[in-house]
Write the structure tokens for this entry.
Amino acid sequence: MNDTAKADSFWLSYFMAESRVTPVLIFSSEGVILGHNAAATQLFGTTLLERGFEALFLNFDRSANLVRWADESHCQKLSVATASGFPATLNFSFLRFEEVILAIGEYDGEEMRDLRTALLTTNQQMSNLTRELHRKNAELHRLGMLKNEFLGMAAHDLRSPIGNIYQFCQLLLDDKDEISETHLSWIETMNDLSEFMLTLLNDLLDVTAIEAGKFSLHLEKQEVCKLIDQAILLGGRNPKGIKAKIRWERPTQPFYMVLDAQKFVQAACNLISNAVKYSNPGEIVRVETEFHPHYLRFMVKDHGPGIALQEQKRLFTSYQTGAANSQTGEKSTGLGLRIVKKLVEAHGGTTGVYSEPGSGSCFWFEIPVSQTEKPCSTGEKP
Amino acid sequence: MNSHRNVRIQEDQYQAYLADLMGGKRQSCAKLVDHLISEKVDLKYLYTELFQRSMYEIGVLWESNRISVATEHIATAITETLLPMAYPLVFSTSRIHRRVVVSCTPNEYHQIGAKMVADILEMKGWDTLFMGADTPVESLLTTLEDFKPELVCLSLSVFFNFNALLEVIQMVKTAYPKLPIIVGGQAFLHGGRDLVENIPGVTYASTLKELEEIAG
């Protein structure tokens, strides 16, 4: 062996044994792998010996020709299926060395640099977009608070004059004998509208206070059945003052929970009055309660027109009402269920509805028993 | 902004975080950050005592060849995903209607320090524009023309990019002689402070706190 051949042999041995970066494969003239180094094993992640050239390289257009490339000392960009499952592209140099063909792979350094720059640029753009998104979110939050403040002020300032109009309508209706039939009907309309506006303003005040985070819970240990009695009393009359038929199998034992009594009654009352509103006169509205060790479930079931599935998803958002009209003709502010949701969520609970068109609805909420206060149903107030 | 300022990071929490950061365990790191934010940790404390401290330590480990550049990149990438967890608070402060551009020099690929500078100033109510890693000086000058800031902050992490920093300062000063520049970054641990402080209108800030004081 002459000196050049010895040097070649040395470098071949070096690549074969030492290189962990440069994959080297030795093929026979027939394209069968006779040997390889550790970098090749790492790249392909499979048994290589005696495998064929075409089994390793992605040769989509069938243009690969190992022998020709070796004879021309050709350098070819080739993609391979790697151990990780991702294809990788390397520049392979094919060299004929005595009776065998060497394939030496190199990662394209320039391409790697370009890739790194592209990744950095993308990362930078993402980063700036994220910052911009958060800045806009903060601005939206600020504007939302401003809107709530404005709505709250407007609702507060309008409540007094509209309350006066309502009171004057009531006074006029007390003397209905002295009013012509036409004027009486106008005053009744004014009365109904001003009453609706008062309800709307009260709901707006509630929603703006809730959404601005300006309400706090006054948590105390309460007897829940008494609160439900109050909610049925308040919510169980339709707008014409007619008492609705509400059925509730009241538990014989009292049930104590830590909650805000006023807000609990408001939430329960809203569900009951909604059910009454959408029930035909004489139809029974059922209130059901389940007292579990870790939560209370409160349900109100009606035989009203029911609600389609796509509408149910929107019900608990602001200014959304169902497609059905109330049986009393009363308008809805579209805020009641939103208020219920927020009040229940403030107690750590959840709200929901089961309904089908034509089969009535069941609105419910669940409120967890406080972690520190276990429920007590022994009849003795703790 | 967050009002409780007595939440502290325990040493064992920090060490576990550092280990997770180098181990590529983003979820574990995020869990601690989430916990601290929910406990209303002071954001500047979070930035300096967790993000900055850990990245400084990782930088030292890399410089002393105890961790690879890959590990350093993983830790940086994770930290960059953790910063936005504080953004709902960072960007909710009242605006003071002052503008600043924060940028890295050309060839400087370590942008996390610059990003923290931008966030700290954002917390103080500045409107920040973050230019990020490897910003060509032409892009910086165009941005200065468009954004019209009253301050520029330049970050340098790797000392061998120092000449690039001096070139950027020179070009910004030529185009905007009265525009104040604050420089800072880990590169200055190896020197160069006197070189920049001799340039009129250029101030060196060695810490985020010092940066806040200089920016005013």
In short: DSSP finds ten helices and twelve strands in chain A.
